Structures
1.
Amino acid sequence: MSPPHVLIIGGGIGGLVLAQGLAKRGIMFTLFERDATPTSRAQGYRIRIAGAGANGLEECLNKELWDLFEDTCAETKPFGAFLNAIDGSTTPPLFPMGPAGKKVGMVPPGSGGQKAYTVDRTLFRSLLLLGQESHIQFGKDYTHYKITPSGITAFFSDGSSAEGTFLVGVDGRSSRVRKQLLPQLRYVDSDSRIVYGKTPLTSELFARFPSEGLKGMSAIRDGNLLLFLEPIRFPKDAAIESNGRLQPVEDYVYWVFGGNAEHFGLSDEEFHSLSGKQAAELTLKTTGHWKAGFRSMFELQNVAQSAPLRLISAKPSRPEWPPSAHVTLLGDSIHAMLPTGGSGANCAIADAALLARLICEEGISKEMSGNFIDLMWEYALPSIEGSAQGAQKLWGFKGFEGAKEVGF
């Protein structure tokens, strides 16, 4: 019998961690990513890796990469300020605060008291590519799969195909793998919309933006409109730490500006089609009545790095999903969740570590796939619920009951 060959559809965080986990265990794989390059589009910026996510990542990376990961993370600071957008006055914290400034009830499952890592998403993806370049193909637009007597075949829009033993859909919330495997599954629209972006951490920003808002993770509130921000500072140069394999990242402020769809005065189609420049203009238009210092965050933003996003979520209930010996899903492709819980990336990494471990220990089979599904839902479902609770506090999410289902 030939050794297993895993086909990974999607080169986001979950797919790349899975690739590293399989490589560490000597399991053959090929990863296919639709984007032409790792930096073809805005990837989002700061993510926090903690708990099951940090444990899973360390399990999947070899020691050299894990050490490099730790050396290239940004600083992790406690909470900064909670401020009124109109007059700059202090407001109550958005979440109850526990010891050391940690949010109560908003920590990824299994985090315990372990260290949290603050990561730049683009730099992190570049790190996860190291050593696996020959096994990753960019510019591969996946269309569908076909189960064959010898395994499974993935097909792509350029007319090419790839044969393997097992296919893993890590192709995001609009997953084409999910649409074929679980056509009945639907996500829901939270009716929340955000623009995310970055503003260089310059002397001009320090001079104009209220200093208390740049000391740590802060929130600027105007009713159900919210600007969430965090200064991202890198104590070490990634290029030096990696001997030139990684590009350094300049310090910046990561921010998310959001609220209910009605606040932006745009139809769904208009909002989704915004360019980076148009998304940046929307932040300025919507905050014209804000305190001038707060508006400087938007006035000084890098407009090429701004992007709109509709917030959708899987439902907090386990769908009917018969296990397959040929194909499975992980990350946003099966349990997309709202970003207000800080759990999406951690769950995707935990999924990847779990699947790599099970493939190594149990081999590829229907039983292994079923075990993966059972164990994954144990932490994914509470994370979906916790993220929804955060959205209720931040943007007035009305809950899953009656929420509009989303088709892709």
2.
Amino acid sequence: MCQSDATGPDSQHLTLNIRTANGKCLPRVAGTVGAIVTCPLEVVKTRQQSSNSGFHHLPQIAQEPPGGSQTTCRTVYPAQRRYVTSSSNTLSIVQCLKHIIKYEGPMALFKGLGPNLVGVAPSRAVYFATYSQTKLFWNGLLPPDSPMVHVCSASCAGFVASTLTNPIWFVKTRLQLDLNKNSNMTAFECVRRIYSRSGILGFYKGITASYMGISETIVHFVIYEAIKAELVNHHTKYSMEKGTRDFFEFMMAGAVSKTVASCIAYPHEVARTRLREEGNRYTSFWQTLTLVFKEEGVRGVYRGLTTQLVRQIPNTAIMMATYEAVVYVLTTRLGTDFYDKEAN
């Protein structure tokens, strides 16, 4: 370690505790605020990704089939399905927002917010804490701070976070896909309904798509760590002073890395949403992607990407910059230098 004056066990233990505390507390605050602010865009994105991606206001006969059975996307007639899933008829972000407000009311923009708030804090906390701890582990086995260390750490963190929180996101998606204006289904009612029909395993439908999404976190953190390392080298070489510009640069690094990662790995999001829909049309990850590509083309597997970028990139950039800022403040107070490479 480059901090030659911090070699004692107490100092190392204190530094580890700080990193762990940052990994748990900071993501909870940043993630919760971001979830509330971006919830309407989250609902729009989920609707765009679904098999009823146009979610046009369908004729009454299609909404209420004979016998009074509950309406799902399966009750849409074939001609209507081809219309609402046509790429040319996918609504824009603004059109989606207006459509939801018109036919479901303003509060519909916050469907699934409850599970989102419940899940975002533990998800982010588990992810960052796991990433931080596994990074220490892999640094002991592989060349310290090498790209492979970041890949392995991000993979472990993504796997653990996805496995533990998938039931929460499953319920959130089901609530967001509810197009019924008169529906007052709560998260608890949704949980009971899923459990009564599919049991515990029902909450893990689409988990394979979530695991495939680990590739996004890998690309994200590999690029972010690479940019961060270059910024650290630049400031070490040309300037010893660190100010607000450093945090702005880290914010931009987070935005750039997230943009690239989202574009590369986005199809798994569409597959995951389709798998979480009611019905048996989509059964597995690859079957879902194949079917979507066959019926809707390349644009079908990238539905909602624009909304995803608009929603996620600013949120991620702010979160990453805040993370770096708080770590910097806390570590400098203890006489350490956060910006120095750990492996020096």
